[in-house]
């Protein structure tokens, strides 16, 4: 169906409500699928305990999702860029719920400097 500039479509209130609910459902599914794939990728690599066991990530968001999934009640206190053996790493400094300081290492070579 083609509408010229002078034609318009009018939706009834019930149709508008249904359309809004449909769009919200689609957006929620898209958001949830993105979170799952980011977490799956990060969990498939190292444990983040050292450079050698760095978690391979494709975004900074994956780094924070990994920390959240592994360290309940923790908070990131700082983040640093590090270079070792010609590779780039993000190091997140995390404060645990009981006050300990923990470091998580992330291999960021898949996206760092690609802009």
Overview of this structure, please?
The protein has 115 residues and is an alpha+beta fold. It has one domain (15-107). It is 37% helix and 24% strand. It has 2 helices and 4 strands; from the N terminus they run H-E-H-E-E-E. Strands 1-4-3-2 form a 4-stranded mixed sheet. The longest helix is centred in the N-terminal third of the chain and has 31 residues, at 13-43. The radius of gyration is 22 Å and the shape is elongated.
List the helices and strands and how they pair.
Blueprint: H1 13-43, E1 55-56, H2 60-70, E2 75-84, E3 87-95, E4 101-107
Parallel strand pairs: 1-4
Antiparallel strand pairs: 2-3, 3-4
Helix pairs in contact: 1-2
Organism: Flavobacterium pallidum
Protein name: Lipoprotein
Keywords: Signal
Which properties best describe this structure?
four-stranded mixed β-sheet, 115 residues
Briefly, what is this?
The protein has one domain. The protein is built from two helices and four strands. The protein has helices at residues 13-43, 60-70; strands spanning 55-56, 75-84, 87-95, 101-107.
